[in-house]
Amino acid sequence: MKMPKFKFKIPSLTVRGRLRLVIGMLMLMLVAGGGVVSVWAFGRYQFMLARAVRAAERSTCSQCASYGVLEVVRHAGSETAPWLRVRCRKCGHEWRIE
Fold first, then answer.
1. Which of 9, 34, 90, 98 is the most exposed place for a label (fewest CB within 10 A)?
2. What is the dihedral of CA 68, 69, 75, 79, to 10 degrees?
3. What is the pLDDT of residues 49-67, one digit of tens each?
4. Is the model more confident about 3 or about 31?
5. What are the strands of the beta sheet with 94-97, ordered from one edge?
6. Which residues are CB-neighbours of 50 under 8 A, at least 6 positions away?
7. Rounded to an integer, what distance in angstroms lies between the CA atom of residue 77 and that of residue 83?
8. Cα angle vertex 70, ends 56, 94, to 5°?
């Protein structure tokens, strides 16, 4: 029994074929780049949301128990670890929110 011979002919790409290939590769790179940006943006959103929740938890005055009635006296710190010096508008108690 003789094995059949298969001839594989690789067609040469025409100009139109090359253009389709280049456009396909470009679209694939754009989709991958968009995915990377989306993952980064979601991580940044989660970080900022967690920071806002921490600040909201610390915005109750320990003296008169009023929530959110405060004014900012001073702010400082680095971008990654900012803090605020706040004062209660009702009783004048000051504390630091990190």
1. 9
2. 10
3. 998 898 888 888 888 988 8
4. 31
5. 70-77, 82-88, 94-97
6. none
7. 6
8. 100
